[in-house]
Amino acid sequence: MNWLSAHLFSLVLFLPLLGAAIVAILPRGEGDQHKGVAVFTSLVTFCVSLLLWTGFDSTKAGFQFEERVEWAPSLGISYHVGLDGVALLLVMLTTFLGPIVVLSSWKGVQHRVKEFCLALLVLETAMLGTLGALDLVLFYVFWEAMLIPMYLLVGVWGSERRIYAAVKFFLFTFVGSVLMLLAIFYLWSKSAPTRTFDYVTLMASLRLDAGEQKWLFLAFALAFAIKVPIWPLHTWLPDAHTEAPAAGSILLAGVMLKMGTFGFIRYAMPLFPNAALEWAPVIAWLGVIGIIYGSLMCMAQTDLKRLVAYSSVAHLGFVMLGLSALTAESASGAVLQMVNHGISTGALFLMIGYLYERTHTRDLAAYGGLAKVTPAIAAVFLVITLSSIGLPGTNGFVGEFLILIGTYSGRLQSGVLLAVLGSLGVILGAVYMLWMYQRVMLGPIRRESVRSLPDLSLREWVTFAPLLAAIVVLGVYPGPLLAAVKLPVEAFVQRVAQPPPAAEPGQRRRVIPIRPPSLGMQQPGAAPSDSESPRVHFPRNTLPRAPLGQPPSVVPTEQKP
Prior knowledge:
The chain has 561 residues and is an all-alpha fold. The chain contains 21 helices and two strands. The protein has helices at residues 3-6, 8-25, 31-55, 85-104, 113-132, 136-145, 147-157, 162-189, 199-205, 210-227, 236-243, 246-271, 273-299, 304-325, 328-359, 370-373, 375-389, 395-408, 415-441, 458-476, 479-497; strands at 64-72, 77-83. It has a two-stranded antiparallel sheet with strand order 1-2. It is globular.
């Protein structure tokens, strides 16, 4: 193994931070230089991240591109990073959107350009670190680091009510994060005799009783549910999206919201599988409520960005439904939907940003008849709209289809009803998205100023071209993505749907080294064996059909003397 392969993810992780350092030393007032460095850095980061994709072995269980350096060994803290298939897809999504975001802001951001580029690059490093961290303290550091640049993007470069939206965003997400930090400290205290924050070690050795799992799960789940956001914790999202600049909205919808869903599949549910199994029906119903509620709220909006913001509540409700159904199909669809939503909704916010630069309004009533004046904008907007609806042949279809079929055939007691209600959300999505397109692009021209609007420029075409290509390619050929997430999804389903027995309350708990087959992890240098990594057949669910929420059997360990 050469140096590059051993440190490849760390190189991708800190390249944006290096670009931020270069921007920081450039003289103020050189806006084009700052933007040029930011574009170049984000483009190089994406090109280097392609080596992660080409070097990833989807047939190998566990984490790859793993790197570990002791940070504070006396406290059990280390710089431990690595990727599985789920994290890899979101890392690729993050680096893919990076140069698009900077290019989209070339004309729209003209003041404090240096600070704007710094915020974008630091935010990219924070998001990548959150996805790759395998130490809970390291994860928390990157998790909190995301708040500061996003707070600045909304509060400094946002619209009229930007301060209100930025403070609301910060307070909501920070409160949930504090509870998660307390839960992390509790896990560290239970990792005796060797205190550690290492995620892999905790997953393989720590046993908690049912009561402990419940409260710890709720602490983690609250932090992640706010970030998703799950109804009724969603109220910060429409304000943040509405007031944020286009770049902030693209990153918020494209990547940051996925940190919440990623937190569920990586931390909250696998770390506390007994509690996750018990609460899965509740999460599923909250997801479905979010689908219906978000869709209905979209129909009541008159602001373009606010409409798309509520559509995110609906789309991410599908993700939570897929994760809580606990089948290989639904969980794979949920991961795919994370990527698809980032592409489609990111493209929607990009389009709205360009329209706002031309008209200086987001009011639906001010638009109409744009297709007669700007046919290229109308054509691109139509493709993005159909992708968001989930038209077969576009990227949005595959994820929703897998989620619904997995929920229908899964272990949830009300799985059929949940799938039917989720399908209703698909119909409502078509209604409000086509209604939005009709109001903006079709019909008579309502304002004379619209007649002089320019069509897409070369720079704008460059930002849309990769998004349109991704919409079509992932809609026609999603196989490589599904192959990449197959093993981690099977491990997730196996661990949560068939959790190891919880420790008995009142018994003396001890760290018992085990090899959870659900993780598919092995010691460095050891070859995985079939006995250590049993497979869950992907095409159809083979898990027992016992109702979710049924308490698992308890196997007592060592009685108190």
